[in-house]
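Standup notes
- DV: blocked on the single-chain target, sequence here:
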Amino acid sequence: MDTTTRTQLEAAAFRGLIAHLQQRTDVQNIDLMNLAGFCRNCLSKWYLAAAQQQGIALNYDQALEAIYGMPYSAWKTQHQGKASAEQLDTFEQTKPLHAKISGH
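- DV (later): unblocked, structure below
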């Protein structure tokens, strides 16, 4: 497979993941972090890092909006619940497995 085709397929898969996460507002970021080691915020940071590597002017709020499909503050108000003590404990225990954000 050539590089252009691979990049197009990866981009389509990424758009599918983002669309799915935008629809699944019932899935909390802490649950994603605890189970998979990454969340919407991680995706936003990877998106921002990719933009910066390409010399594209983008700030973190814009990256968050690209992933959440709305301003982050609106998403938090509309969809983010309070994390339970158990969720927070699991989060702390799984920290070594969390995504590295410095690159992609």
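- Follow-up: Residues 3-97 form a domain with the SMc04008-like fold fold (CATH 1.10.3340.10).
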